[in-house]
Amino acid sequence: MGMTSSGSGAGTAAGSAPVGLVLAIDAGNSKTDVAVVAADGAVVGAARGGGFRPPAVGVEAAVDAVADAVGRAFAEGGVSSVTHVSACLANADLPVEEEQLAAALHARAWGASVEVRNDTFAILRAGVAEPRGVAVVCGAGINCVGMRPDGRTARFPAIGRISGDWGGGWGLAEEALWHAARAEDGRGGPTALARTLPAHFGLTSMYALIEALHLEHIDTARRHELTPVLFATAVDGDPVARAIVDRLADEVVAMATVALTRLDLLTEETPVLLGGSILAARHPQLDDRIHELLSVRAPKAVPQVVTAGPVLGAALLGLDHVGAQEEVHARVRAFYEEA
């Protein structure tokens, strides 16, 4: 189903929570947003915290970081627990991880029930009027999910090359480095990336950049800075850079088409949401290529970029769970879209 739920029994505090009160959590690798949504759709408490990285720090430490933001949102809303916790979490890529994270959140007694999904579902739900459609997210990594109102979902493990993934900011930076290194030493064809990538760090050769990265004179985390350089080089007409951008478009459309097929939506008019920093940037070459390929492979797909914050999606999924009326959904959406 693409999610893991944990039922009632969280303790007295959760049991006395106002009916319909939802705690929405969108926890990404770089930041966490939480919101307390009242039964009428009013956002009565909200807070932002740091990144959610269980693989790096462990589940309990990662949940501790979320707990800080939840505590501040609860204090603002004047509540101590909720009816339901809707958590869309980075690194919840496999069912076993969702189960582990759902148990960890349930143990905090924030709500009588807990539902954990991968954070890509928050992007999808934020962009659609009902839980129906497909979303492709390309930020640091790449992922795709789809859902239907009957609860059917489509998803990918999305844990890197071992699960067949290609793309995302980190992957694009590595691909650009690979081509640039081979261009400089003669193993590959020429590309302006051999000049533009090292120049970004004030260096004059790929050899110098390779050395600086290997010896960590340049922090590993800064590799993501090379992705915008790749796109700028493509805009200037470099064939290799443009080919990488086209390949990303192919990957986005392949994931979306497979998800639509799995959900029997390929022949129905269906939203295909594009999110994450790379897709939201609306790079003309990438954007045009995605639309071109979708028109051939999934002509009924309706592509659109999601601009609303993902915590909106987590909130709407929570409201779906508690059976909130459409006007309640509309009030939450208006709050975030106006903000």
From TrEMBL:
Q: Does the keyword Membrane apply?
A: no
Question: Which SUPFAM superfamilies does this entry report, sorted A to Z?
Answer: Actin-like ATPase domain
Q: Where's the ATPase BadF/BadG/BcrA/BcrD type domain? A: 25-318
Q: Which InterPro entries did the record assign?
A: ATPase_BadF, ATPase_NBD, Euk-type_GlcNAc_Kinase
UniProt GO molecular function: kinase activity
Keyword line: Kinase, Transferase
A Pfam family = BcrAD_BadFG
Keyword Transferase attributed: yes
Superkingdom of the source? Bacteria
Name the UniProt record assigns to this protein: Kinase
What is the taxonomic lineage of the source species?
Bacteria, Bacillati, Actinomycetota, Actinomycetes, Kitasatosporales
